[in-house]
């Protein structure tokens, strides 16, 4: 088994162990996965001693004992109401996973695949979702305060709800994010950074406190909040037929090359 294969094996084991023992200490999940991986090519004789730690009570998550689910395969996993503050889910595969009601405060989801994931009522405040794939993800009632979504792909993501018309994107970093076709009516965009974002076909009707997004790409189907409707055309240049870019904040060489 190569080093890369061992790393992949350990990542999958961490995911499986968390699903089986969600209240176990992060360190126990980590050490058990590593111990099993070390003996992956041997015929199992008895449980690894580290597995006994899985029955210990979970301590309050911290930076020292951060749950490591990097590269974990959690496709369609039920993580509803999971307690995952500060968890590291970088590069995890969460395709169609249910994270409804989960606590992901300050979690790390860099490059995570959350395509079609259910993030309804999820606490993502302070989370790092840089370059995460959130295509068609359901973020209804999600708390995205101070969330880093720079370079994230939010194409056709659902960020609205009839009972909560103002999705919270307060101070969210959406630099270079792909929000093409995203539904954000009534979003609270106070101090949100949308520099260079792809806003083609996006619905921003009723969004509040949105600043002119320098370098952002938009088209004739983009629906703007009232405070920007009168200025957006005057402050933009046509970069291709029917496609425009807001001046300032850097110029993208091609609207199809927005980082995702």
Describe this structure in words.
The protein has a domain at 1-62. 15% of the residues lie in helices and 5% in strands. The chain is built from 3 helices and 3 strands; from the N terminus they run ααβαββ. It has helices spanning 3-20, 26-38, 226-232, and strands at 217-219, 236-240, 243-246. Strand 2 and strand 3 (243-246) form a beta hairpin. Helix 1 (3-20) packs across helix 2 (26-38). The longest helix has 18 residues, at 3-20. Residues 51-62 have a biased composition (Low complexity). Pfam families: Pentapeptide (PF00805).
Helix and strand sequence: HHEHEE
- The percentage of residues in β strands lies in under 5%
Helical content band: 10-25%
Overall shape: it is: elongated
Q: Provide mean pLDDT, rounded.
A: 86
The strand line-up of the biggest sheet is 1-3-2
Computed over alpha carbons, the radius of gyration is: 21 Å
Main sheet? 3 strands, antiparallel
DSSP helical segment count: 3
End-to-end separation:
33 Å
